[in-house]
Amino acid sequence: MNRTHKKTRLGRLGAIVGVLTTAGVLLAGCSGAPRNDAATGDTAIMVMPSQATQISWDSGYVNSEDYIDLQTLLNGTLVRMDYVEGEDEGVIKQDISNFAGYLAETYDVSEDGLTYTFHLADGVVSQAGNPLTADDVVWSFQRKFDENTVGISAGLLATAGLTSADQVTKVDDSTVAITIPRASDGLTLLGSLALPMGIVYDSTFLQEQATAEDPYAVKWAATSYDNYGFGPYEIESLTDGAETVLVANEDHVGGAPAIDRIVRRVVPEVGNRLNAVRSGDADVAVALRPSDMASLADNPAVFIPAIATNQRLFLTLVVTKAPFDKVEVRQALSHAVDYERIIKDVYSGQAERQFGFLNPDVTGYTDEGLPKPDYDPAAAKALLTAAGITTPVPVTLTISNADPIASDIAVILRDTASDAGFALSIEELTPAQVSEKQDKQQGEAYIGWGAPWNLSPPYVLQWVNNPGSTDTGWTSQPFTDALERGYAAGDVTSEAAARAWNEAEVIWMQDAPNIPIAGVGPTVAFASDLTGWTWRTDGGVDLSQASFTDAD
Predict the structure, then answer these.
(1) Amino acid 184: pLDDT
(2) H or E stretch covering 83
(3) Are 49 and 270 in contact (CB under 8 A)?
(4) pTM
């Protein structure tokens, strides 16, 4: 392989040095000085609230912008949702119903709809220099389902009927077959394979890091930054807590991206991120506040996408212990949220009330029967009293300190819930700490935003309710029975299936392990000379699709 840049092998986090020096440069770079290397059009400067604590999807999910972005930039999947031009100039979006070849050039479906055969593209080489083979695909899925893997891939893939690595088989060196139990799983399967849970790794490289105690190099990857994917970029260097530099992978199956280099800088203060993109010190700023987005709307130097997203603001309640082991308490909390105040005061109107999670654009969608609670302290207290619950009910609300508006929302919730029979205390943790607590169903209540990345109805319904991935601990046999009726209807977008999906969603919302608050818009701003803002269902920013308008 010919390289025009020097690739740096990166070891464990403890071995990374130079934090103070880079941090000093970073602060100076966001002070309003003229933009430096970004002006060439070859380098994009991106500012974000925190740095990913790891880059391996299968070693434990971390809810942060940097982590999500890196999955797309460093890795490849068999297929991906097709990128199409958005309604607004400069916007690219995913076509959620069409799947284009990626690491697999093409795929076939058997007549009974139970076997998907993927034909790998020729000449694909990993960042480590190893050719892509069927063995990589099979091994990657074995890794996802291994009992020592701590990620969430297995639970999410189960919603597509993919519950065992045995369903992924090698046909020959360049062909892989995946079998599913029901033809109605097909749409969900393709959607999942196009997302991070479908990532294919360089098995040759990772097996070199494996040990008898760590046969799939899961523990190794959880503390190591290295290049073992098939994505459009690779890591050139990293300074712990301050900066990650990516360079274009010249051997990428889709060709090297237009932007040669991405400098991902940590800027914890949201106001500094806003100023960086406003002044031209940064080309991309993520995790801005809705008020920040509104303030940039008339700035000719900044591009603000006007597009609806699938991002949702909601509460997650742990139902396996008090106080939310009682449905009446969960329902009472749904009346303790001042939804309109949050939309108005926190989101500056750049959000809209949501009563469920299913995508209303899916054929046959209906919201019939969905509970639509308003802020009603009297109703909340009445539910608690009827259930024999003594008020005030103490609740610890856990939020991420990297979310620029989480604390604002939490304060409103604390204030309004106090009139409804609840005494909320606020716990702020890092994204990694929040993810760890949720994975273990610790804590009591969480506030955050997220999205069901696969918009197939059965996936959305099991997004946070799958036994292998749930944060709440909630289970319901009537809910499961409704799902089975949807699957039995065949086409997951048929009218018969849509009725079953609606029934399942109503059961979910009535039992209230999750309380939807609002659908929210983008929180990412681009420099106006950078085109190719991508709307992705996973919320990631895919700069492999972007380019500078003044670049050669």
Answers:
(1) 92
(2) strand 79-85
(3) yes
(4) 0.79
